[in-house]
UniProtKB/TrEMBL annotation:
Gene3D superfamilies: Winged helix-like DNA-binding domain superfamily/Winged helix DNA-binding domain. The keyword DNA repair does not apply. InterPro entries: DprA_WH, WH-like_DNA-bd_sf, Znf_SWIM. This is SWIM zinc finger family protein. PROSITE patterns: ZF_SWIM. Pfam families: SWIM (PF04434), WHD_DprA (PF17782). Keywords: Metal-binding, Zinc, Zinc-finger. Residues 401-439 form the SWIM-type domain.
Amino acid sequence: MNAVQTYRYLAPSGVSNAGMALQTCGGPAANPRFFSGFLTTPQAAAAGLLAVAEVARTRYFQPVSPASLDPVVTGSADRLRFESFSGCCGVYARLDALPAGLDGEILAHGTTNVDVNPPLREALARVAGLDPLHLSVGPDDLTVSTMDGAVVEKKVPLPSRWLRGFAEVHVLSAAFEPRAEIPATEAAALLRRLPGARDRSVLWMVPSGRTLRPTSRPVPGAVCLAGAGRLAALRGLLRFAKVLRVYGPTVRAGSAPVASTWELDTGALRLSLTLSPEPYRGFSGEGAALTSLAGDDVTDDAELVSALLSWDPAIDVDALATAAGIPAARVRAALAQLGTAGRVGFDVSEAAYFHRVLPYDAARADRDNPRLVGARTLVEAGAVELDGDAAATVRSGDETYRVRRLPDGGFTCTCPWWAKYRGGRGPCKHALAVSMTVRVPASPVRSEAEDA
C-alpha cells in the first residue's frame, strides 16, 4: 500500500553560475534551509549525489520504468546525509558529506526530502573543473519571501515498503563489522571483473591480499555479494575515492545469504550501498525490526531516550545511558526501536547510531507489520503457555507449536514460517508472542547465517 505525500518545493532544484540549489520540503519548518556554503570536492560531490538519485529511480529486480522518488536529506551538527532506496527496496544508498567536504554553515537540523529532478541530474553530470561548487540546501531567504511565486507541488507515491526499509536496514547493519578495506584502484579492477547487471547469483567475497576474490561458498571471514550488478552506482565515485570498505555480519561454512555494505571513502565524502541478502528480496520484508517493536519496557525506554537525542552526527550510547539513568544495553534496545520510527539510522563506518526523523507517521508500525499484530492477538487470547524459561507452547487456530528460546536470546519454532525461513526474515508471530509474554529484552534477530 502506498502513502501519497504532497511535496511542496518553492522552485525546482538546479545549477547556475551562483552554484547548486537543492530544494527541500517539509521537516522542522516548511521548506527548511539546512546548509549554505561550498563543497570542497565539487566533482566528487556531484557524482555522489547522482549515485543516490540513481538508486532512488532504479528497480534492480525486474526492471521497469524509472521511478522518481526524492532522496531524504538530514542536516546534523557537522554534516549532511542524503539517503534513498531503490524502487525494489533491495538497495539502500547513503552519501555522507563530512566536515572536510563542507565549507559553509549548517543552518538547521532536521530531516526532509530534497528535489533531484531530471534537469538537475543533467547539470550534475556536467560539473567539472577545480573551482568549489556552492551548495544551498533549501530555498534562500529571497525565495522564501516570495511564496506566491514558482511553487512546485508534486504528489509522490511513497511506498510503505520504502519506509519500512529504513527501519530494517538500521537493525541489520548494527550487527555488521568491517570485513575488508582495499585501495580504490583495486576496487575499480574488482568491479570490472564482477558479473553484469542481469546477473542474479549470490557470491561470497574473501579478502585476498589487496583485493577480494570470489568464491561460490561461504567461509569464515567472507562477505556476501548478492547481485553484483547492484554495485553499479559506485562506479561514478571510484575515481575520487581512496578506499573501498566492506562490512557484513559474521558468517561460517553453510551460511545462508546475508546483507552487506560497500562503502567508498574520498576523505570528504562517503558513499555506501547496502545490499539485501538476495537480488529479489527487499529490505522491507526482512522482519529484523520486529523484536524491537515487541516489548512494552523497550517502548518506555525509547520514549525516554528520544527526548534526550540531539543532532550529533554520532550518538554516544554511554552518555545517553548516564543521562537517562538506565544501562547501556537498554539504551541500545531503545535505539533499535527508535529506528523503526525513523528517528535514528546506523552508520557502519563509525559503528554508531545517528539522529534522523523521517517524514512519516510512526503509528504505521502496527499496520505495516502483520506478524506483530498477530503476536499481540495471541498474547491477548492467552494462547502462550510457558514451560520454564526456555520453552513455550503456542496455540494458533487449530494448530499448536513449540517455541524454544536459545542461549543467545533468539527463538526457534515448529511452525511452517520458521521451517521455511529459519529466522532469516525475522521471528515468526509465535516467537514474538513468547518474547512478549516473558518480557525478554529486545535482542538481535538470529540471522540465517547463525542458523545454518
